Amino acid sequence: MTYEAPLYRPPSEARSLILQLTLGCSHNQCTFCYMYKGKPYRVKSPEAMREHIAWGKAIDPGARRIFLADGNVLGLETPLLLEILTTLYREFPALERVSLYGGPGDMLGKTPEELASLHKTGLQLVYLGVESGSDTVLQQVRKGVTSEEMITAGVRVREAGIHLSCMLISGLGGTTHWEEHALESARVISAINPEYLGLLTLLVEDNTPLHRQIQQGSFHLLPAEKVLAETRLLLENLQVTDCTFRSNHPSNYLNLAGVLNQDQQRLLAEIQEAGEQGRLRPEGWRAL
């Protein structure tokens, strides 16, 4: 039993056992995303899921954390998810946390009662790719939801008691919409008030719609110094409570870590210093 490549996980799941119960992404329309373009979405059969869980138990019977892949496992039917969670906590006695990716559409497709039952059965953490709070940017990248729908989705998960980790993509508004991207992202994240917030910086892969837009001249990449300005504007306008903030993904020009809003001024000072000293990750080292 092996994984079906490509396989992705958040940086914070580096020590987790990964169980691949779905393949690809149920949305798979985002113009910037290359992760699952060659991998049609499908759900493994119940038998294949059981075999994969048994394989995971054989290689890591003492797993304390399990991450369910691929993209948007939250889109599975709730009874099936409840059965999976029950099985995991039965088969892995030391298990403390189960986490997964959840698209906003999948969150909106669950009732508050369904999400509460998933939390009660052991779903501890959901990763939500917010990407941007700007309706202009969300529409341009074909995210499939509005900013208000994104807020509703995030708040619904949080109110169910499930921890939420939101992700934003620096530079996604390009040179035209970077200020709107920063300000509106701050608005959306402040409204959701997640436990965790992570920043990635836009990386453009060949054969994506966004790559073609760049070639055609309709999208212009944000230079590194403007990415710093965008991050500064975001942090200046965030209003969150006890939110663990990280920009430690290798795509970023600058690594930042803190708790918001209490570390806001320190983080802003680090951005200022890095900009003045030119202490940024070289372009060729991003994503290594």
Automatic annotation (TrEMBL):
Its cofactor is [4Fe-4S] cluster. The lineage of its organism: Bacteria, Bacillati, Bacillota, Clostridia, Eubacteriales. This is Radical SAM superfamily protein. Pfam families: Radical_SAM. InterPro entries: Aldolase_TIM (IPR013785), BchE-like (IPR051198), Elp3/MiaA/NifB-like_rSAM (IPR006638), rSAM (IPR007197), rSAM_sf (IPR058240). Residues 9-246 form the Radical SAM core domain. GO terms for molecular function: catalytic activity; iron-sulfur cluster binding; metal ion binding. SMART domains: Elp3 (SM00729). Keywords: Iron, Iron-sulfur, Metal-binding, S-adenosyl-L-methionine. It comes from the Bacteria. Transmembrane segments: none annotated. CDD domains: Radical_SAM. The keyword Metal-binding applies.
